[in-house]
């Protein structure tokens, strides 16, 4: 019985693996889109399998061996959305031209770094071109040699969830021959062309926010409807900013960068900073206060109580005065930037309302803060 060549064995392996992947993902594209894909996070894992034909490019390998087959497995972890890093292992088999019963083999062990188009991109059908490089330790027969490899390829997603990817690749492998008396010391150069299969965790997606449906009810010939003053399809009883349009993702408020508008307060994403032991605003805080002023100008029915707080360091009287002065400094800044003074109240609480412990420096730092509390005024149209 004749033996199958490494080339035919590799070709069958490629075809079988592709068929299994395609069968496993036949219904992967049936689901509806789940929202916009998010970027890969550091530590995301993927397994990459490459099967292909191996072609010796230079002598003496091209004179001794025929075209063969190869198989590579890479376990990769994301460094960021563009770079993956991980170990790789490759097996190559080349049939001897003079004796078909003999097969030359090579095992390559190494570390691989891959640069790729982020998997969450949606243009170009989601196709992700990539390049990678490997630093290798090569074992051929009884010889241990260093080497390196470089490859280019493209990964095509199968389905909306993008768990499975498939695509062509070409890999150049260079094995460095160390000087050995009596042997041909030319470096070995090989080209592998084949199909790359990848399985990973898939892309995370943003939840699709669905705005509440607004219905008009006709009962006893009277028509009732949910008011929506800013016309953003979010009813006023749900909308945190009923005077200015915004998406449901932000509860009807514009997408402010440094604050979140809630029903009972303006919650800052960043702390406000002052000069040490003084009521002088630090320049680092001005961009945040500018956005607070804009939010108050967008929502003219908001009244705001500015609350100042300190840590427990120092005397109570000093802390009370300092918290009042800092709250007043914030109020005056907002007035200077177009917010009506009648809409603002400044109060200082000293160290009487701690947010965190005062026994650590980090806790005391958390307790030094200025907070904004929103008081809503309900305006009834048609009344004096």
Major sheet: order of its strands? Answer: 1-2-3-4-5-6-7-8
The CATH architecture assignment of the largest domain turns out to be Beta Barrel
Query: Which word captures the global form?
Result: elongated
Beta-strand level of the residues, as a percent range?
A: 35-45%
The value of Rg in angstroms is 33 Å
- CATH class of the largest domain, named Mainly Beta
Largest sheet: 8 strands, antiparallel, barrel
Strand pairing plus helix content: what structural class?
A: alpha+beta
The poorly predicted ranges are 17-33, 375-384
Helix content: 10-25%
What fold name goes in the CATH topology slot of the largest domain? Porin
Distance between the termini: 103 Å
**Number of E-state strands:** 15
Please describe what this structure looks like.
This protein has helices spanning about 5-25, 60-65, 285-300, 315-335, 360-365; strands at about 45-55, 70-80, 85-95, 105-115, 130-140, 145-160, 165-175, 190-200, 215-220, 220-225, 260, 265-270, 300-310, 345-350, 370-375. The model is unreliable at about 15-35 and about 375-384 (pLDDT under 50). About 15% of the residues lie in helices and about 35% in strands. Helix 3 (about 285-300) crosses helix 4 (about 315-335). With about 375 residues, it is α+β, with helices and mostly antiparallel strands. It folds into three domains: about 5-200, Porin, CATH 2.40.160.20; about 210-250, no CATH class; about 255-375, OmpA-like domain (60s Ribosomal Protein L30, Chain: A, 2-Layer Sandwich). The protein has five helices and 15 strands. The strands form three sheets. An eight-stranded antiparallel β-barrel has the order 1-2-3-4-5-6-7-8. A five-stranded mixed beta sheet has the order 11-12-15-13-14.
């Amino acid at each position: 019985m004749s033996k199958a060549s490494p080339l035919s064995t590799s070709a069958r392996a490629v075809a079988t693996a592709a068929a299994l992947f395609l069968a496993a993902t036949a219904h992967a594209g049936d689901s509806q889109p789940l929202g916009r894909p998010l970027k890969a996070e550091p530590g995301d894992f993927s397994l990459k399998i490459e099967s292909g034909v191996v072609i010796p490019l230079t002598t003496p390998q091209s004179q001794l061996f025929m075209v063969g087959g190869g198989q590579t497995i890479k376990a990769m972890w994301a460094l960021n959305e563009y770079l993956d890093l991980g170990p790789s292992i490759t097996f190559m088999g080349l049939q001897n031209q003079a004796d078909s019963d003999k097969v030359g083999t090579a095992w390559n062990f190494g570390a691989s770094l891959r640069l790729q188009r982020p998997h969450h991109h949606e243009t170009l059908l989601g196709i992700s071109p990539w390049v990678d490089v490997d630093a290798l330790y090569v074992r051929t027969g009884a010889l241990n040699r260093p080497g390196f490899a470089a490859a280019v390829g493209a990964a095509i997603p199968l389905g909306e969830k993008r768990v499975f990817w498939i695509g062509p690749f070409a890999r150049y492998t260079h094995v460095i021959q160390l000087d050995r008396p009596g042997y041909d010391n030319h470096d070995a150069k090989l080209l592998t062309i084949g199909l790359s299969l990848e399985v990973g965790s898939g892309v995370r997606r943003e939840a699709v926010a669905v705005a509440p449906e607004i219905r008009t009810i006709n009962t006893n010939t009277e028509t009732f409807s949910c008011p929506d003053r800013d016309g953003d399809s979010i009813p006023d009883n749900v909308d945190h900013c009923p005077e200015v349009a915004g998406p449901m993702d932000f509860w009807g408020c514009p997408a402010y960068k440094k604050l979140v508008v809630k029903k009972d307060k303006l919650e800052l994403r960043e702390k406000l900073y002052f000069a040490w032991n003084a009521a002088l605003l630090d320049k680092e805080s001005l961009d945040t206060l500018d956005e607070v002023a804009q939010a108050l100008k967008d929502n003219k029915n908001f009244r705001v109580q500015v609350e100042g707080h300190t840590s427990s360091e120092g005397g109570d009287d000093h802390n009370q005065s300092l918290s009042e002065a800092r709250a007043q400094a914030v109020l005056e800044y907002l007035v200077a930037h177009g917010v009506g003074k009648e809409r603002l109240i400044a109060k200082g609480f000293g160290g009487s309302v701690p947010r965190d412990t005062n026994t650590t420096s980090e806790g005391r730092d958390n307790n030094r803060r200025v907070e904004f509390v929103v008081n809503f005024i309900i305006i009834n149209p048609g009344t004096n």
